[in-house]
Amino acid sequence: MAWETPIPAWNPEWYGFTSEGMQWLENKGLKWEKVCAEEGDLLVWDSRTPHYNLSSTTDQNRFCIYTCYMPVAEASQEDLKRKKFAYENWLGTTHWPNCQVMGRNEAKRDGELDPHNRKEPIKKPQLGERAYKLTGIPYIEATV
């Protein structure tokens, strides 16, 4: 958005709106809507839509999993190899499934690392054929 100098991005896939950008959105007729989700709710949206996340201000714990997909035809072989690496090493990615940025978030409680953090699941997932295809791994071309 050439009309605004964005907030410095922590990676090239993120765009932080300034108050000028927020006003621009409002002038276009857009307004923020707080989504009040209940336990077990599924929220589905296009992550290119401006959105934000705030920490809970109550004693109620909150847990969510962001799952992002794109057509495999839009992924390069390098993208798929990065996704395989992320999958095999229990790493997360950003909102963009082509996996330009990988990492592991470590939850903190009162500024201290949460003792429940771990580097891999206690119980490893057993993927069926469809779920395995969703990882993108089967679409990596064999090298000779």
Tell me the series of helices and strands, N- to C-terminal. Answer: HHEEEEH
The largest β sheet comes out as: 2 strands, antiparallel
Structural class: mainly alpha
Helix content: 10-25%
Beta-sheet strand percentage? 5-15%
User: What number is the mean pLDDT?
Assistant: 81
CA-to-CA gap between the ends?
44 Å
Q: Supply Rg.
A: 18 Å
The strand line-up of the biggest sheet is: 1-2
Tell me, briefly, the overall form. globular
How many strands appear in the DSSP assignment?
4
Low-confidence stretches: none
Description:
The protein has 144 residues and is mainly alpha-helical. It has 3 helices and 4 strands. The protein has helices at 19-27, 77-88, 129-134; strands at residues 92-93, 102-103, 108-109, 112-113. The longest helix is centred in the middle third of the chain and has 12 residues, at 77-88. The relative contact order is 0.12.
Tell me the layout of helices and strands.
Blueprint (H helix, E strand, L loop, with lengths): L18 H9 L49 H12 L3 E2 L8 E2 L4 E2 L2 E2 L15 H6 L10
Antiparallel strand pairs: 1-2, 3-4
Question: What key phrases describe this protein's structure?
Answer:
single chain; 144 residues; mainly alpha; two-stranded antiparallel ribbon; two-stranded antiparallel sheet; 3 helices; 19% helix
Q: What would a concise description of this structure say?
A:
The protein has 144 residues and is mainly alpha-helical.
